[in-house]
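Hi R.,

As promised on Friday, here is the backbone we talked about, encoded as structure tokens. Could you run it through your design pipeline when you get a chance and send me back a sequence?
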């Protein structure tokens, strides 16, 4: 690992906060407690708040994950946090957010890309907006800890104050980014406040409560899918054997596995956050209890790389890396899937949750969609009316035909869902 990478992965929280805080107005929350109020603070101020040490403790991505993301991904973003106080002036919830320039047309149909490109050659900023994203840069968002009534009260306070804070920060667009559908009731106060809820590209979830992988195939898959999988596995294993290793720290091999992640990232039609070497290294060193790295080697060469997180009875498949010079020949996607599910079953996990995209193989492997939502509002009341009409045309799921083939596709739009 290079010297620059080492310095980045070991940078202190204070150094990072100082870099960003210089251009951002500060609020001394300790000296100005506001009962029933919402304040904006920086990472530097956050370290003195005890609530932060317990934040998101019931999730696989607890507060440590937000710190890793802020330190290692997109330094050009402004990372900030809402503190939400109850009537006694106590901080009852903390909600991370970040500010960026958002491409509003990122989800339009590919047929319009040529028109968009021609317009932007003359007006490069066409349909870019300074945007406040409430949630996490890398992954789904969650509300802070608390029972249902506490979360509902905190959500109402934030919904009442967020537009005012956005305007003060010079933000034109507000997005609650990728909140799972179990929050729809709690976040309905945002819809009443002028936000529009639209689906984001959903995650998927697979039941792996089986005795082994053969039991899963025999019970969950149809005969045609079983036959195809066995043929692929046999062809791969007939070649040079592939060995799997599992670790919770990839610092020593990051230069070997990171290019595999980049190959998958570069081939993706819809790109999300681009992760860094420092991100993967910090993930292992800061969250060894939650993170597992999987590396598949053909001989001495790494040909596949997987990043998973574990929590409760669920294994979360976060990121995948493949060597595309051999990926199709060796059927690596399905080979990796089999080994991950085998490992999950062997270690007592009941559910296998995957991030969005690449839905066709997941459909045949009997995944179900796990909806996640965007809540969107313009800070101008007039423009927000127009945006509410345009958003259904801009939302990203409408152009993926495979999604409509999932049996629970309707849950992407349903006003309520029983999914957990």
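Update: got your reply. Pasting your designed sequence below so it's all in one thread:
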């Amino acid at each position: 690992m290079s010297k620059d990478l080492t310095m980045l992965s070991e940078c202190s929280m204070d150094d990072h906060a100082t870099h960003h805080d210089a251009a951002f107005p500060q609020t001394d929350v300790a000296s100005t407690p506001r009962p029933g109020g919402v304040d904006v603070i920086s990472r530097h101020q956050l370290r003195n708040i005890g609530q932060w040490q317990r934040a998101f403790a019931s999730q696989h991505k607890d507060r440590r994950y937000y710190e890793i993301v802020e330190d290692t991904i997109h330094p050009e973003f402004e990372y900030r946090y809402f503190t939400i106080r109850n009537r006694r002036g106590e901080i009852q919830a903390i909600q991370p957010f970040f500010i960026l320039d958002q491409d509003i047309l990122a989800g339009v149909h590919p047929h319009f890309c040529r028109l968009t490109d021609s317009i932007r050659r003359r007006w490069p900023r066409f349909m870019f907006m300074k945007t406040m994203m409430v949630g996490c840069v890398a992954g789904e968002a969650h509300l802070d800890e608390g029972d249902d009534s506490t979360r509902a009260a905190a959500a109402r306070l934030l919904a009442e104050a967020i537009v005012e804070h956005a305007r003060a920060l010079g933000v034109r667009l507000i997005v609650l980014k990728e909140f799972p559908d179990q929050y729809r009731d709690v976040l309905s106060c945002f819809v009443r406040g002028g936000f529009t809820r639209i689906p984001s590209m959903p995650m998927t979830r697979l039941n792996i409560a089986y005795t082994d992988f053969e039991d899963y195939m025999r019970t969950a898959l149809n005969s045609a899918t079983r036959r195809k999988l066995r043929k692929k596995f046999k062809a791969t294993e007939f070649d040079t054997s592939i060995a799997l290793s599992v670790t919770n720290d990839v610092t020593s091999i990051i230069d070997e596995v990171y290019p595999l992640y980049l190959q998958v990232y570069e081939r993706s039609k819809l790109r999300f956050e681009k992760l860094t070497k420092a991100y993967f290294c910090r993930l292992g060193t800061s969250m060894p209890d939650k993170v597992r790295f999987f590396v598949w080697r053909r001989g001495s060469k790494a040909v596949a790389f997987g990043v998973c997180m574990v929590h409760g009875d669920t294994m979360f498949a976060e990121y995948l890396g493949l060597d595309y010079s051999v990926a199709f020949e060796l059927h690596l996607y399905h080979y990796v899937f089999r080994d991950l599910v085998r490992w999950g079953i062997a270690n007592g996990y009941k559910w296998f949750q995957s991030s969005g995209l690449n839905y066709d193989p997941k459909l045949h492997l009997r995944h179900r969609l796990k909806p996640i939502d965007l809540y969107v509002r313009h800070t101008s009341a007039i423009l927000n009316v127009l945006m509410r009409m345009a958003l259904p045309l801009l939302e990203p799921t409408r152009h993926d035909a495979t999604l409509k083939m999932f049996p629970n596709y309707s849950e992407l739009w349903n006003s309520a869902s029983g999914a957990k």
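One thing I noticed while checking it: Confidence is low (pLDDT under 50) at residues 1-31, 416-420.

Thanks again,
M.
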